[in-house]
Amino acid sequence: MNESGAAGPEPGDSAFPAFHAGRCGELAELDAQVVRCRACPRLVEWREETAAHPRAAFRDQEYWARPVPGFGPADAALAVVGLAPAAHGGNRTGRMFTGDASGDFLFAALHAVGLASQPTATHPGDGLELYGVRVTAPVHCAPPENKPTPAERRTCRPWLSAELALLAPGLRTVVVLGTFGWQALLPVLGETGWPLPRPRPAFGHGVRLTLPAAGQLRELNVLGSYHPSQRNTFTGRLTFDMLVELLARAAGLAGLGRPGQG
Fold first, then answer.
1. Which residue intervals define the domain Uracil-DNA glycosylase-like in the entry (predicted)?
2. How many domains are contained in the chain?
């Protein structure tokens, strides 16, 4: 028996995600299990160490310092898949892509396309709503140097697999931010039931992969985008207009149009 009184591995067991993720019948239940997870010792240590030594600007704030669940409606037609929470962003606020420069860039672009109620994301309860979009990541804990290990990615993968399976009835498009997310996502889509092409296409900004319908799964469009990291945005590798254009394309493929306008 585990600490919740249910059979199965404890949160600190490496088998915790694989055991619990597929047993969740709705996203709220999945998110609650994600938050309990302590399956990767290095990530647990780092997220808590970061919280114990906050940046000067956040010294008066209590860090979340737990896994960060996905954010957005359960009937989302568009998913945005990143890398992992930032140590002083999502790991501080408890909401994906919230409170850091990458999130500022992403949510401003989502707002410009009509997929977010406001261009800023500072903390849960700030009024931000997403329209038809769910934002998530293949790794739910902040990693040192923003670099999860392959083993950590594998351990965390059941959460993303279960999340996409729960979204599948309405999901039509996925935008993947960066090479890491692309490499992590494609095997998950295959596990969920979408047929993957061989060889698998390489990541690139604007690359589009269309996976055919299979069984009860509808056709799915997967678009690659450079990650809105400061390394990419400061150098101009990813401009605001580039991201807005790609998100507008993704929204169109998902049948969302401009849901936040009017």
1. 69-247
2. 1
Nearest Cα to 31, choosing from 163, 137, 127, 119? Answer: 163
* CA distances from residue 174 to 2, 77, 144, 244 in whole angstroms, order as listed: 35, 9, 26, 15
Burial of residue 153 (number of CB atoms within 10 Å: 0-12, 13-18, 19+) = buried
Strand-pair partners of 177: 225
pTM of the model as a whole: 0.94
User: Residue type for 159, please?
Assistant: W
Q: Is 123 exposed, middle or buried (0-12, 13-18, 19+ CB in 10 A)?
A: middle
Could you give the CA distance from residue 27 to residue 85 in angstroms, rounded to a whole number? 19
Tens of pLDDT along 179-201? 999 999 999 999 999 999 999 89
Write out the residue range of the structural domain in which residue 167 sits. Answer: 16-253
Within-domain flag for 3: no
